[in-house]
Amino acid sequence: MLVLFAHSGTGSTVATVHRGDGVVLQLPGYDRKYRVPHDLAHFATERALGISAGVFGAIAAGGVFSNMRLVSGKPRHDAAQRSRRLLDANKRALTMAELVAGVVHRAVEEDETDRVTALVRDAWISFDGSDFPWSDEQVTEAAVTLAELAAEWEALGVVKAMWPDDLVAPMPVPHGVKRGRRGRT
Prior knowledge:
The protein is of the alpha+beta class. The protein has one domain (2-162). 44% of the residues lie in helices and 14% in strands. The chain is built from 6 helices and 5 strands, in the order E-E-E-H-H-E-H-H-H-H-E. It has helices at residues 38-49, 55-61, 79-89, 91-109, 116-127, 136-156; strands at 2-7, 13-18, 24-28, 69-72, 158-162. Keywords: Membrane, Transmembrane, Transmembrane helix.
């Protein structure tokens, strides 16, 4: 999935997402006060940490957030129901992605990347309390990648990046749907 981050007409950012199914969507950013776009932080963090059910993995799977708009392409006939089911099934993962991407974003924004692993670990403990699911190297990679993308953003005002095909949120099976062959009578 191709994602193009660019300046919007409002002074913020907009991420134009070209999904594999031919649908093109725009995700507006609300980050005029930041040097580094928040959605870029989601992209770098979720990709580096392998978060498939975060913002961009959910979009790749067919999720459409309420603030997104269709630019082109023809969505599936059941796209709205699938999106709702997908986003509902991944609420916890989306919340976790928001938290972790926010911490990485802040570390890069405030030039504290040397502390990013400790900051993400602390955030994880407050969120879940279980064993930390990522290596220090992955967390560092998220911050380094975001810093590199931020430098490209500052230099060019646009960032073009690919979301991995294998980092897509799983589509939950609809409730009440029976799978398999019907019994013969």
